[in-house]
UniProtKB/TrEMBL annotation:
This is Outer membrane beta-barrel protein. The lineage of its organism: Bacteria, Pseudomonadati, Bacteroidota, Flavobacteriia, Flavobacteriales. Keywords: Signal. It comes from the Bacteria. It comes from Croceitalea marina. Residues 1-27 form the signal peptide.
Length: 342
């Protein structure tokens, strides 16, 4: 009888230990499933030529990126993210001319670098360097319909370094508040000055604010949104006003896009842009009207973007030169870009 008791005790002890190990192993596996690593990004390249002027010299629209002639490189973009439970981090690296123009020389190759904490289902804190919340367009060509960028995007901030808090107030309303270094001082402030940012969102429409007390940009208010006019027709909208002690600007852009098939979409960017002095339109600075017609044809993860662009300045002073070497205020150009995302 004693032997049986001991045997049962050993068996029960073994089963209890096995169950404990199985539970621990299951818990460990469950914990491991909460950890997620992803790697993605894009590669882009393009060919560009001027139609109304020679390709020799600095004959380009004057906006950021896609400003070379002939065959050119855009950038390679590598985005690594790691999430474990409620916290995570993102390292977004860029290599190439587009990336160099986007990040500047203070922190080469680093487009974004931040850690985040999902405090609750409705609140997220982000700490580090992140792309700007202002404007309709972004740095990565995968996030834009047009390959070349607008004057509004080129004149505003690209990225910020600081702390932001995102709040999902309801299914439709969202709020973001941020304290950051002044824009374009993305490595460190060095002046003791900081900037404030805010974004109020409602059903895909966003009202954005930036303020640094005149340190760099001064004050900017920006509206970004759009509406689906039908299943195949989308209209994007962007309008902005920026004032500071030096140069400011205001303007608006419309982005109608029509989807003709699953593979092809045709879109137009129509933009009016007016630089200002001390936030005032003195009438001495010419404005520009930009029209960009872009096609987007996708084959799996590769997208081809043929694009015709017309830039017309209002002043009589020469801005460009035509094919005969005569001064002109208009420039027409053509490009075709290839963008691969993974």
């Amino acid at each position: 009888m004693k032997t049986i008791i001991n045997t049962n005790f050993v068996k029960n002890l073994f089963l209890a230990g096995f169950a404990l190990m199985s539970t621990a192993s299951f818990a460990q596996e469950e914990e491991e499933t909460e950890k997620k690593f992803t790697l993605g990004g894009s590669v882009d390249t393009y060919f560009r030529t001027n139609l109304s002027s020679t390709d020799v010299g600095a004959q380009n629209p004057g906006t950021s990126f896609a400003d070379g002639t002939g065959f050119n490189l855009g950038m390679a973009n590598l985005i690594a993210s790691y999430e474990s439970g409620k916290v995570g981090a993102v390292a977004d690296l860029v290599f190439g001319p587009r990336g160099d123009a986007a990040v500047g020389g203070d922190i080469p190759y680093v487009n974004q670098l931040y850690a985040y904490w999902n405090v609750s289902e409705s609140t997220t804190l982000t700490f580090g360097r992140f792309n700007t919340f202002l404007g309709y367009e972004v740095i990565s060509p995968t996030g834009n319909f047009n390959y070349s960028t607008s004057y509004l995007f080129s004149s505003g901030p690209f990225s910020h370094v600081g702390l932001k808090a995102d709040f999902a107030l309801s299914d439709d309303f969202s709020l973001m508040l941020a304290i950051m270094n002044p824009t374009d001082t993305n490595f460190n402030s060095g002046t003791g000055a900081y900037s404030l940012g805010a974004q109020l969102g409602y059903s895909g429409q966003y009202l954005n604010f930036y303020y640094d007390g005149g340190e760099v940009l001064g004050f900017e208010v920006d509206y970004t949104g759009g509406v689906d006019l039908s299943d195949d027709f989308f209209l994007g909208i962007n309008a902005a006003l920026a004032t500071d002690e030096g140069n400011g600007f205001y303007g608006a852009a419309l982005y109608p896009q029509y989807k003709t098939s699953e593979a092809f979409t045709l879109g137009l960017r129509g933009e009016y842009f007016q630089p200002t002095i001390d936030g005032i339109d003195t009438g001495d600075i010419p404005s520009v009207l930009g029209l960009t017609l872009t096609g987007s044809y996708s084959v799996d993860n590769l997208t081809f973007k043929p694009e015709i662009r017309l830039d017309s300045w209002s002043d009589d002073a020469p801005v460009f030169f035509d094919n005969d070497g005569e001064a002109t205020n208009g420039l027409s150009s053509f490009l075709i870009a290839a963008v691969y995302s993974f």
